[in-house]
Amino acid sequence: MPEKIASVEAVARSVRRPLPAHLHREVRTHLPKQEACPDCGGELRKLGEDVSEVLERIPSRFQVIRHVSCKAGLCVLRPHRARGGAEPAHRAWRCGPGLLAHVLVSKYGDHQPLYRQSEIYAREGVELDRSTLADWVGGASRLIEPLVEALRRHVMSAEKVHADDTPVPVLAPGLEKQRPDDSGPM
Fold this sequence. Notes:
The protein is of the alpha+beta class and 186 residues long. It is 35% helix and 23% strand. The protein contains 6 helices and 6 strands, in the order H-E-E-E-E-H-H-H-H-H-E-E. It has helices at residues 2-12, 88-93, 97-109, 114-123, 130-143, 145-156, and strands at 24-30, 45-58, 61-73, 80-81, 169-171, 178-180. The strands form 2 sheets. Strands 1, 2, 3 and 4 form a 4-stranded mixed beta sheet that branches. It has a two-stranded antiparallel sheet with strand order 5-6. A hairpin with a 6-residue loop joins strand 3 and strand 4 (80-81).
């Protein structure tokens, strides 16, 4: 029975595919700030490195930015790690801020649904599932919650709030024609 539960959990988690090998890679190396051990003053030697890759979109092309944070120390007991690299949210999502901005502007500014964006990226040789794009959009919305709350407080602090109640044509479900939006004022 425990084996069956473990296999179901493994299937439920999505498998993270490696970033495409054919994309251009830019390496950004982050060195420790200290050149000597703060305790004994001895020279720091390279012990290894942590490597994380972030998918980024440069207008009209994709590229992978490889962040290398060097670890150095006198011994393995007290390593010194360089600070820097991708922000934690982007590192977890494996996308750069430019790509995230492009996905959000395409979705909300250009009205490009995520499935269509996924197809466009696939034509460019980058397989991004719609669920991955949706995770990025959801994560970005959580990141801007403080900004939305500040904006809401500012708008609602006024004595009056004016709104435009102009009807907007929307595509009727199941029909191929538009109908006016009758959802009424907010």
